[in-house]
Amino acid sequence: MRRLRDPADSLRASALDALAADGAMHPAHAALALDRVTARYTPDALAALTSRELAGRRVRVLLASSVATAPLRALALPLLRGAASVTVKPSRHQPRFVPLLTDGLAPDDAFDHLVAYGSDETLATLRASLPPGVTFEGRGHGFALSIVRTTNHPLAAARVAEDIAWYDQRGCLSPQAVIVTAGDPMAFAEHLDQALTEVARWLPPGLMDVGLGAAVMQWRGVHAATALRFWRGPHHAIALHDTASIGSPGARNITVAGLDDAGLHALVRRHGPHLTALGVDGPTDDLLAIEGFAGRVVAAGTLQDPPLDGPEDVRPALGLLGAEGGGVIQGKMSRSR
Questions:
Q1: Are the beta carbons of 177 and 245 closer than 8 angstroms?
Q2: 72 and 172 both lie in a single domain
Q3: Which range of residues forms the domain containing residue 214?
Q4: Domain total of the chain
Q5: Are both 191 and 283 inside the same structural domain?
């Protein structure tokens, strides 16, 4: 007797295909990501986020290109906050996963509350175009850093490698540099080279399109020529510098630099408005008190697995007012350690 396929199996298969396509993810990577994300949606977590903050509001969500699973939380939060209706415009680069989430939501082109994700410039343009009476939540540009404050470099490298590998550095919680404040940065980079090779065995990288491939080649060329030392692995590259160099095309390409605590504090203050999170192996109390920093402080190895405690990016929503008669509903800020 032929076994009928479980509709849940069909839905999961469709979701995995969509995630792999939207996020340029290896299918095995997409499966791990889907399981990890959906495990957060427990009854207790959902109950803790339920409110009437957006009661009666018709919410429009504008998404930017990010990690492929990000639309799930972006759509769930307005509904949990009591929105009367939610409509969404996905990124043109990631069109496949969102329709699976919005099937069953009543379409409504009208809205009186806008939640937008994107560059700071895009958010400013949206702000200028809002009609009277429309409130606004803007979630702008952000990135994370990995901080190593322990001399147990083999273990720290394994944790940092996982933070780098998840989603191939495509999200606002992805580390853009590693800062080492304890021990020899070169020794840490050696361990990180090995750890990134190892993590690729169970968290395989996705394919790169032409644009990303060109950006990676350019980044590697520049850093190979300017770094104190450069490592090129099967699916990654590491550049060691004597000063912090922040910025990566993604795809598991990362810089490493050594700083003392004073230098680390100055770096976090300088980039504070755009820092979404610090993934730290070592003490954290002093980091939580740095002026201008409002992101998450979490253990290394968990940067890409934020609890369902609100937005993934816990920085306050950008304070952009709508047109005359509009306003802002500020996002709640929290800290996770």
A1: yes
A2: no
A3: 143-299
A4: 2
A5: yes
What whole-number distance in Å separates Cα of residue 150 and Cα of residue 308? 28
User: What is the C-alpha separation between 174 and 189, in angstroms, rounded?
Assistant: 18
CA distances from 261 to 149, 153, 177, 220, 301 (A): 9, 17, 16, 28, 21
Q: What are the C-alpha distances in Å from 172 to residues 165, 179, 196, 302?
A: 14, 18, 20, 14
The maximal CA–CA distance of the chain, rounded, in angstroms, is 70
CATH of the domain at 193: 3.40.309.10
Query: Are residues 16 and 160 both part of a single domain?
Result: no
In 3D space, the residue among 19, 36, 315, 17 whose CA is nearest the CA of residue 162 turns out to be: 36
Separation CA 78–CA 73 (nearest Å): 9
Q: What is the pLDDT along the chain (337 residues), one digit of tens a residue?
A: 455 456 678 889 999 999 999 999 999 999 999 999 999 999 999 999 999 999 999 999 999 999 999 999 999 999 999 999 999 999 999 999 999 998 867 666 789 999 999 999 999 899 888 888 899 999 999 999 999 999 999 999 999 999 999 999 999 999 999 999 999 999 999 999 999 999 999 999 999 999 999 999 999 999 999 999 999 999 999 999 999 999 999 999 999 999 999 999 999 999 999 999 999 999 999 999 999 999 999 999 999 999 999 999 999 887 433 333 344 433 332 333 3
Cβ neighbors of 290 (< 8 A, separation 6 or more) are 265, 268, 269, 272
Residue 3 in domain: no
Residue type, 191: H
CATH of the domain at 85: 3.40.605.10
